[in-house]
Every structure is written in C-alpha cells, then in structure tokens.
Amino acid sequence: MGKYYSPSGGLPPQTHLTTERAIVTEAYTVIPKGVMTDIVTSNLPGFSNTRSWIIARPISGFATTFSQLIVEIGPGGGAPKAEFEAGVEGVVFVTRGKVNLTLDGELHQLEEGGYAYLAAGAQWGLENVSDDVVSFHWIRKAYERLEGYEAKSFVTNEKDVEPTSMPDTNDVWKTTRFTDSGDLAHDMQVNIVTFQPGGVIPFPETHVMEHGLYVLEGKAMYLLNNDWVEVEAGDFMWLRAFCPQACYAGGPGEFRYLLYKDMNRQVKLT
C-alpha cells in the first residue's frame, strides 16, 4: 500500500529554523512530524535493533488511559516477548514493511495495514525477517475487566475491514472499526477515520473519551479546544477528555488518522 506516513528520524542541519508547530496545553498537545528525530528516540527492553518514539504516556497534564509508541525494527531485530506488564492489552498497526508476529504460539505475518489486537495476558513477540525496516504503532492500555466479558486477541488488515460511512455524510466521512463498538468486552477502540476533501466534523465534539490521533495521510484543519490547528501526515494529537474537537478536510487528497479512544466502562468514583 505504501501510503501510511512513518518517521525516518535524522537530525535537522544547524541552519534549520528552530520554530516548529509543537503545542502543549492543558487540553491538548500537538507533536508535529518534524520533531521526531533520532535524538528523541528510546530503546525498548527485550528488543534488539529497535528504536521507538514514545508519543503518549500517562503523566500529569497529558494522557491518562494509554501509551502510544511508534516503533522501528531493523532487519533481524525484534523481541521474542514484547509485553512484560501483566494486565495490559495492546494494538499493533503496521505502517511500513513486514513483521512476523508470534501470538500465543501461532505465527502471523503483518504487512502495511496489518492490525493486531493483543489481549491482556496474551504471549506475543515480533521479529523482522526482511531486509528493510518495519515501522508500526503500538498502543497499550491497562485492561479494565468486566464480569461476564473477556476480549480475545485477533489479527486482520485494514484492507479486509469495510469502512462504515457516518450518517448523512454522503460517504465523505468514514470510520474503519476493527471491533464492534457495542461489544462490552472491549474497553477501547483503535480505529481509522477517513475524510474525503470537503468532509467535516460539523460540530465541536465534547465527550468523555480521551483521544490519541496520528495522521496517516493528508492534511486538514483540526479544532482543538478554541484553536484551529493545521496538521499533516506524521503529526500526532492528544486530546484530554471533554476537549472540544472538530475537523475540516480541505484536500487535495484524503485525510486519514489512527484514532484511540477509551470506552464502554463506568466511571470509577471510589
């Protein structure tokens, strides 16, 4: 497919202007693609020939329910066991290359657009057996168990999931849902949202779900709280719960992003 944006690292020259589009507020954060350089990467325990950009983690004034990493594995690299924290579920979405996923003893090959939901307690690892780097998003969340329900691991690809058109939008706004939003076994969703040129979110959404949005393709104007911010492929946005948001996709091509949200659980008060 080759259409998903993946960072390549590097370092700007000394003549490069320092001014960037990075924004950090109490309601939202924007991490533009231009700041994802070599010097802000982190190694991951248990992985070889691997680096990551950690773009969300639970800290005061930022994400509260999830972490998100962009992971790059070089040829021959990977981890026989990727998740060491008990009770943590995950999603892997591949944006470049191919990677072998071993999940509870079964081998799967994920290529661009590949999606894996990794249930809490699953045993899984990754290996890059190709001659090129592989890049993917890894979203992690502490699974909130609900009596009578249990989320199960699965592997698919975006191309095998039919997008759902939002009501009364003439197909200019679609969402690719990898899990059923009505399935209470799942306490989060990681979807792909697609806008055709001219498509909009026609009101400022204000809701309890926290969001992480990584722009896979295209550009748009995005309303974050009171600010209209121009974003493009490779940018990441974090939105706190109840942060007003809307979108206008002006084109010329599709505007697409990977969207995280927490859902389907009662608010804990004690």
UniProtKB/TrEMBL annotation:
Database matches in Gene3D superfamilies: Jelly Rolls (2.60.120.10)
Domain Cupin type-2: 70-139, 192-258
Claim: Cell division is one of the keywords in the record: no
Pfam family, one: Cupin_2
NCBIfam families: AAH_UGLYAH2, PRK11171.1-2, PRK11171.1-5, ura-cupin
Protein name: (S)-ureidoglycine aminohydrolase
GO molecular function, one term: ureidoglycine aminohydrolase activity
CDD domains: cupin_UGlyAH_C, cupin_UGlyAH_N
Entry keyword annotation includes Chaperone: no
Gene source species: Pseudarthrobacter enclensis
